[in-house]
Amino acid sequence: YLPAVSAPRVERLSGALSDDTAAAIANRAYEGETSEYVVISRDDTYYDALSGAGLAGALDAPILLTGTSGLSGACRDAIASLGATKAVVLGGENAVSGQVASELEAMGLSVERVAGADVYGTSMACTRYLLAHGGSQRYAIACNPTSFVDAVSISGWAYANRVPVM
Fold first, then answer.
1. Residues 6 or more apart from 70 whose CB is under 8 A from it?
2. What is the pLDDT of residue 62?
3. In 3D, which of 158, 156, 152 has the Cα closest to residue 46?
4. Helices (runs of H) and strands (runs of E) counted in the chain
5. Is 82 strand, coil or helix?
6. Can you tell me the distance from the alpha carbon of 119 to that of 128, in angstroms, rounded to the nearest whole number?
7. Are 49 and 90 in contact (CB under 8 A)?
8. Sign for the pseudo-dihedral over CA of 52, 53, 58, 64
9. Which helix (H) or strand (E) holds 41?
């Protein structure tokens, strides 16, 4: 005898661009709540956002995506709806420009940049920041840097358990 299993409820969160999808996910995850922090990553590559998964978990913050040279409207709107007051920007100015940081400051957010000389350095900087902000020292996830699939697969677990993804 097997108990009856109801069909899972499916809800699609999406947008025209990755920035829109990240904002939709953040707004759904924090529906009716605020978030002191937001973690900001570039929208045209995955390295920094995946390295920041555990860091975002340690801050109980969503990861929002934006263009390299300017703050996207979706990111701006999500920050406003979340009531965030602090932004952690992942990557150097080639990843997320000083213009984006200036726009965040103009919105009233304090801005910290977590960066290294390259994506590997930024990954290590994310690990140091995570550990300084209550992240777990029990585990660290090492992934193949030439393929994103392993990091994507573990990123939710890393967020939930505040574990670095390198």
1. 97, 99, 100, 103
2. 98
3. 152
4. 7, 4
5. helix
6. 14
7. yes
8. positive
9. strand 37-42
Separation of alpha carbons 20 and 141, rounded Å: 28
Rounded CA separation 82/21 (Å): 15
pLDDT in tens, the chain (166 residues): 678 888 888 888 899 999 999 999 999 999 999 999 999 999 999 999 999 999 999 999 999 999 999 999 999 999 999 999 999 999 999 999 999 999 999 999 999 999 999 999 999 999 999 999 999 999 899 998 888 899 999 999 999 999 999 9
Instruction: Please tell me the distance from the alpha carbon of residue 37 to that of residue 29, in angstroms, as a whole number.
Output: 14
Describe the strand order of the beta sheet including 86-90 as a list of residue ranges: 63-66, 37-42, 86-90, 110-114
Check: pTM over 0.85? Answer yes or no: yes
The DSSP symbol for 162 reads: T
